[in-house]
Amino acid sequence: MGGMASAGPLGQFLRSRRERIDPESAGLPPSPIPRRGRGLRREEVATLAGVSVDYYARLEQGRIGNVSDQVLTAIEDTLRLDPLEREHLRGLVNPVPVRAPRSRPAKTGARLGLRTLVEAMDPVPAILQGPRMEVLAWNRAATVLLADFGAMAPADRNIARWLFLDPVTRTRYPDWEEVATSTVAALRANHNPHRPDGPLEKLVGELSVASEEFARYWADYRLFKHGHGKKRIFHPTVGVLALNYETLQIADSGGQFLSAYTADAGSPSAEKLGILMSWGREPIETAKTDDGEYRTE
After folding, report:
1. pLDDT digits (tens, 9 = 90+) for 124-181
2. Which H helix or E strand runs over 229?
3. Which of 93, 122, 156 is the last residue of a domain?
4. What φ, ψ does residue 96 adopt, rounded to 5°?
5. How confident is the model at residue 289 (pLDDT cuts 50, 70, 90)?
6. What is the CATH number of the domain that holds 211?
7. 191 lies in which domain range?
8. Residue 101 placed within a domain
9. What positions does the domain HTH cro/C1-type occupy (predicted)?
10. With pLDDT > 70 as the criterion, what percentage of the chain qualifies?
11. Could you give the CA distance from residue 144 to residue 290 in angstroms, rounded to a whole number?
12. Which residue blocks in the chain are alpha helix, DSSP H?
């Protein structure tokens, strides 16, 4: 991950954002000095944001205390941050104190009501995930469409592990790179440097060693929050389906979210999805928590 790994989280984030901005698009004249790296230099960000070069350099180094809202807004505008990135930056600069700083529990489970809901959504494919992309519950339709999560070892029931370590996903997702980068970016957005999360750090470390692509995407420091959109999925029985996905954040769950997949009514994908769901009518065991018991939060 190069030089970014040696910087603190704030420095990593700010550097990643200025490196992606083309100086010419920022209205800067051609530089008489050859540029050694991509994007904007520190001093250019400082000038565009209306702060001193020394101040901005110390900010990237994490050597600034409280930063005014006016200065933060100027830097955010200069770096063209979107709302999620602005929220992330402010969390890095001014972390919200917590009464009892504690790490997230290493294991999270699907409470009975959520697991029952996921199963009841069949034949709509649905998956419940934790903040580290753990697959906590799924239904028969999701098994037919995506993967047999029940056949995986509990430790392997993780969308990030599946995407980067199972070659079949490169066929299952025709737009694999888009899916993979969004998954890594969602992990990044769920990582709070001010709150220890040993299991997430272990996951990131293992995948960074096992996959050069994962390491590169993590170093890009892109942020993403699951919402809604289109996703293409290939199934060997019916070919490529163009599906809508909707993501629902689950209240009082420690960051769990439910994803469901549907097809536009009357579309070829709706016909294909109907064929798949009728073809896969045999019962399939759905998820339990790692210890085989239902767990409430």
Report:
1. 999 999 999 999 999 999 999 999 999 999 999 999 999 999 999 999 999 999 999 9
2. strand 228-235
3. 93
4. -75, 125
5. very low
6. 3.30.450.180
7. 112-279
8. no
9. 35-86
10. 87
11. 22
12. 9-19, 42-49, 53-60, 69-78, 83-93, 112-120, 140-145, 159-165, 169-172, 176-189, 198-210, 212-220, 268-279
- DSSP letter string over 232-245? EEEETTTEEEEEEE
Q: What's residue 137's pLDDT?
A: 97
Could you give the 3-state DSSP secondary structure of residue 228? strand
Residue count of the chain:
297
User: The tokens of 118 are what?
Assistant: 């996921």
Domain end marker among 28, 59, 93: 93
User: Distance between CA 70 and CA 106 in Å, rounded?
Assistant: 39
**Full-model pTM:** 0.79
Burial classification of residue 171, based on how many CB atoms lie within 10 Å of its CB (0-12 exposed, 13-18 middle, 19 or more buried): exposed
Q: Find the helix packing angle between 42-49 and 69-78, rounded to 10°.
A: 120
